[in-house]
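Quick question, first post here. What does this chain look like in 3D?
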Amino acid sequence: MFKKILVAVNNTEIGHHVFVQALSLAKLTNAELMILQVISPFNDDFRNTSTTEIHSRYTSSQSHNLEYYVGEWEQLKQQGIEFLKLLTNQAIAKGIAAEFTQELGDPGRMICEVAKNCDVDVIVIGRRGLSGISELFLGSVSNYVLHHAPCSVLTVLNYS
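> Answer (accepted):
Ran it through. Tokens below.
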């Protein structure tokens, strides 16, 4: 059935739930699990940093601002790697072959690109449950993936 499953995650409650679902599917089908995190400057974790807002208001030097943002970006990347390692180790502990990758860019496009390049059979992705106007204005990674993926897509709905 499935030989390789790509699971797109982030370090949120829905991200953990998506991972658990992908883990179950991998166990049932004896598939390899590829765990993916896509980070972007438009990522909520990067945009909503309160210290970023404070720092940008009170720092007059643009070079200091740039150094600060680069530092924040590096910290976000490192936290992501640690999260991916944790999930990979959980999968391996359950007897599932697993690897991880972290990509930079637009989440929907990167998920589809990784799926194509790695020849995966199915993508497991979370969905916040947006619809109508909210989805139109806020965009939807899952919607993009559903329409552009080179393989089957399993969406896991967030009920909160």
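Helices lie at 13-29, 44-47, 50-58, 62-93, 107-117, 132-138, 141-148.
The first strand starts at residue 4 and ends at 8.
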